[in-house]
């Protein structure tokens, strides 16, 4: 049964996912919460500046949320280790670059982004969003480095959402892709997550070889050229390797 805390978090996540604004009725219908309860929770959030009410009655994410993200950025080792490297990568490919963090709960979050002017924005890969593991290059980059027992556990609960006609349809199709991508070194998706977007991604690994996140290049048209995709793939692999090394260098040493 959902608690008040759960429902409040759901409201914040829904507003953010809708481009940063939503109305009371929209929230009540989407989350199956009484409008009176939605209004009370929004008032509570507004009191802490996590949301603000616009003149049209809709609610937007407030500046209070910035403190949470600032705290995350200040402490997340992947974001800190990768920033200079993704800046170099973005200059080389002139495309948007994302950093995604893989959590112990098995979720893959967009933790940082470096968009280029006029770059594509896909709603499923916005900052803070959870990436689909089956139809994104980022998700596949993680999956191809999981040991078989963890991969089997993932597939036992996986749902294959057909975001586009190109999306992976079943476990065997995805397993075949993962074998190929692992041999090549990077994963890709061409219109699987969004019909107008293509991406390549490579995993960032810890000292034991386990994925802790990935680096992803996202494009609307550039990566549809195979030569360009292979070049971007090689660059993203090298960037992920550099970030992996940086994180392992800065990892706190165990006490004797």
Main sheet? 5 strands, antiparallel
Number of helices: 9
Low-confidence stretches: none
Structural class: alpha+beta
Give the helices and strands as they follow along the chain. HEHHEEHHEEHHHEEEH
Report the helical percentage. 40-55%
Across the major sheet, the strand order is: 5-4-8-7-6
**Could you give the distance between the termini?**
45 Å
Number of strands: 8
Shape: globular
Beta-strand residue percentage = 15-25%
The whole-angstrom Rg is 19 Å
Query: What's the average pLDDT?
Result: 88
Report on this structure:
This protein is of the alpha+beta class. It is 47% helix and 17% strand. It has a five-stranded antiparallel beta sheet with strand order 5-4-8-7-6, with helices on both faces. It has a three-stranded antiparallel beta sheet with strand order 1-3-2. Helix 2 packs across helix 3 (35-47) and helix 5 packs antiparallel against helix 9. The chain is globular and about 55 Å long. The chain starts with a helix and ends in a 6-residue tail after the last helix.
Kindly list the characteristics that best describe this protein.
single chain, 256 residues, alpha+beta, 3-stranded antiparallel beta sheet, 9 helices
List the helices and strands and how they pair.
Blueprint: H1 4-17, E1 21-22, H2 24-31, H3 35-47, E2 51-53, E3 59-61, H4 64-75, H5 77-93, E4 96-102, E5 108-114, H6 137-143, H7 148-157, H8 171-184, E6 187-190, E7 198-205, E8 211-219, H9 226-250
Antiparallel strand pairs: 1-3, 2-3, 4-5, 4-8, 6-7, 7-8
């Amino acid at each position: 049964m959902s608690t008040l805390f759960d429902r409040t978090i759901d409201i914040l996540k829904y507003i953010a996912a809708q481009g940063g604004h939503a109305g009371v009725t929209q929230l009540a219908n989407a989350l199956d919460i009484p409008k009176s309860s939605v209004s009370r929770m929004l008032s509570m959030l507004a009191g802490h500046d996590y949301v603000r009410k616009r003149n049209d009655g809709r609610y937007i994410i407030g500046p209070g949320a910035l403190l949470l993200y600032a705290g995350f950025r200040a402490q997340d080792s992947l974001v800190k280790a990768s920033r200079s490297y993704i800046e170099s990568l973005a200059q080389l490919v002139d495309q948007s670059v994302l950093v995604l963090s893989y959590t112990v709960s098995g979720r893959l979050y967009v933790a940082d982004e470096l968009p280029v002017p006029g770059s594509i924005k896909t709603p499923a890969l916005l900052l803070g969003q959870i990436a689909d593991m089956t139809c994104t290059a980022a998700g596949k980059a993680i999956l191809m480095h999981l040991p078989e027992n963890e991969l089997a556990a993932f597939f036992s609960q996986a749902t294959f959402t057909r975001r586009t006609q190109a999306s992976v349809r079943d476990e065997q199709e995805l397993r075949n892709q993962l074998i190929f991508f692992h041999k090549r070194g990077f994963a890709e998706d061409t219109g699987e997550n969004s019909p107008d977007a293509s991406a390549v991604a490579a995993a960032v690994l810890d000292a034991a070889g386990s994925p802790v996140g990935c680096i992803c290049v996202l494009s609307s048209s550039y990566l549809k050229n195979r030569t360009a995709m292979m070049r971007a793939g090689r660059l993203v692999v090298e960037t992920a390797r550099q970030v992996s090394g940086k994180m392992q260098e800065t990892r706190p040493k165990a006490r004797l």
